[in-house]
Amino acid sequence: MDVIPVIDLKNGLPVQAVKGERKTYAPVKSLLTPKNDAFSLARAMLEATCAPSIYLADLDAIAGLKGHGKLISDLAEKLPAGLWVDAGAADLQKAQTILDLGAQRAIICSEALKSPADLNLITSTLPLEKTLFSLDIKNNTIITAQPGLLGNDPVTALQGLWEKGFDSFILMTLDQVGTGKGPDWPLLDKVRKALPQARLTAAGGVRDSAGLKRLSNLGLDAALVATCLHKGWVTQKSLRELKQMN
């Protein structure tokens, strides 16, 4: 299982995400580095995890504001890992713009989607390995304005997306992000059993190595982490020990 570091960008700086309440996000304070610029933090997180990729959320772009295109392009060029970029892609043009910046994968998130036609165009045009669908959940409800997803339970929604052509998913429980209280274990178990061949990434609430081990035992392919690294709940040493155990 890959352990993928997360950086959330707002107003040019990495911020600490907590429960999806973006108005309250403050600049990151991390034990990994005293610096709070995206390059320093990304390098420190990659050094701690030896991850093949890093997840980057452009919160300004997601909110419909001017995003961090130049910074994302620079990070994609200079970092020794691929970038999974969530910049509010709701249609093919925005997804392609993210890829043109040098992203390894463009995140298609339920929060941004509005039109089934746009979703179909994305799946029929972009290579599978260039996209990753994030099902955003808060209070046990999918966050979306897309009629095909609105009101569905997460398992049914993901099965429908699999049938449309997506093969890689993030299960993002936003109300657990930054809490260290653990992801939605029953839901992850249900999704893994319903879609055994899909690439599945857990996001939200991972606290420690025991949690990462439990995700690995569930058959997850990756886990997104941030707070547990910044606070030292998960360390380079503990990740190395976990890898050796597996």
UniProtKB/TrEMBL annotation:
It holds the Pfam family His_biosynth. The keyword Membrane does not apply. Coiled coil: none annotated. GO terms for molecular function: 1-(5-phosphoribosyl)-5-[(5-phosphoribosylamino)methylideneamino]imidazole-4-carboxamide isomerase activity. Pathway: Amino-acid biosynthesis. One of its GO terms (cellular component) is cytoplasm. One of its GO terms (biological process) is L-tryptophan biosynthetic process. CDD domains: HisA_HisF. InterPro entries: Aldolase_TIM, His_biosynth, Isoase_HisA-like, RibuloseP-bd_barrel. Keywords: Amino-acid biosynthesis, Histidine biosynthesis. The keyword Hydrolase does not apply. Belongs to the HisA/HisF family. This is HisA/hisF family protein. It comes from Dethiosulfatarculus sandiegensis.
